[in-house]
Write a structure and sequence with these properties.
Length: about 300
Amino acid sequence: MNDLLACSPEVAAARRAGAPTVALESTIITHGMPYPQNLETARAVEGEVRAAGAVPATIAVIGGRIRIGLDGAELDALAQTPDAMKLSRADLAVCLARGATGATTVAATMIAARLAGIAVFATGGIGGVHRGAEKSFDISADLRELAQTPVTVVAAGAKAILDLPKTLELLETLGVPVIAYRQDAFPAFWSRDSGLKAPLRMDSAAEIAAAHRMRATLGLPGGQLVANPIPPEAEIPPAEIGPVIEQALAEAEAQGVGAKAVTPFLLARIFELTGGRSLAANIALVRANARLGAAIAAEIARGA
Ligand code: PSU
Ligand code: MN
């Protein structure tokens, strides 16, 4: 395993010291945002984690090794590799066995974080149940990962391109706690309120850390989804983003976009259709999630 899993010196030192560490994914870099904003965002998100007193661990597969923590040059190279493999649970072992390079989705980042002993992971939005899933069967592997891998994931809810009621129903079936942070509503990524009530609510990082530890005490598999609403000043109201999402979905359908390509296609089209505003919102929410993730990691480290 040591040959397969390589921590950066900074992450290795944090692990030895029991210092708070926050995992960060890489699919958002290669498939979620255009260059150079993807690189700027990845650096800014790492900066947020550091400013909050934790160590960032951006995770990717490079040359057949799971890398936990990338240096500046590696981050730069990854940000300019848009054809990197998009790795979910199903792809991780194949990519490693081939000695290839790929970016980890929420599911694969959770697997890697657990292997590295990292309890908290911050991202933008998780994958979920796609609209029309009753026909397409398109349901992100992120949901089942949350059910089986014990990592607390901080996201701004699920992306509003999804079927959010079905996503919440499936998370409930899978036994995943969905915890809205400091509000009752489940957030919808670019908007603070999806119109749906979140099953659970917590108002402090300490509470979230206590619940994380309690799951371990009970021996429950799986993680927690912390749904942190986008900062108010960056939000795009549902009435504005809604029609844009509808148009992007219609185009995806008309062009026959399917499988792994769906989420990147929709994000790219929504970026174009909003004149970049969706990206500014995306960047703001990931940064906010990194700050909350660092606070939760600090509480977990304190209680360990
Ligand atoms: N959140 C973002 N941008 C992204 C993603 C999430 O703000 O690009 C990525 C994550 O890596 C997530 C993946 O795991 O999209 C979901 O893809 P799919 O729907 O194919 O499972
Ligand atoms: Mn899918």
